[in-house]
Here is the input.
Amino acid sequence: MTEMSAPAQKHAHPAFNAILQQRAQDFQLRTADKITAFAGSMGFVYLHAVLFAVWMIVFEKSPWPTLTLVVSLEAIFLSTFVMIGQNRQAAFASAKAAHDFSESEIELKTNTELTRQIHILTTELHKRLLTGSSGADTTP
Here is the structure.
């Protein structure tokens, strides 16, 4: 049994593993994945709740204009990371569909060939049982 890397163990689909390997080689994609993973966590929510509360209570007497600007800018950037994540999922779905299609085509061809071989063998067996022939020609 060969040893697989941690991502390959988690996701055994070859198409997904290829995408993971491609993303691991690109610094920008790795960074986007890390930001997206953090932005989609409860830690992100708790951090913002604390930071915004401290900002509104301690640092600013009128926090709303500046806070609105910061939150709007953050939303713009986070929506971009969400779209990057959606692109990643779309790439995986496309690669998986292509891989699954080619695998099913191979299986279809194999099954068709097996069905043909079974038909040939069944026909030969039927012919031998009905005629009592062994299939070997004994005439000189």
Remarks:
- The two ends are 56 Å apart (CA to CA).
- Residues 64-131 form the longest helix (68 residues).
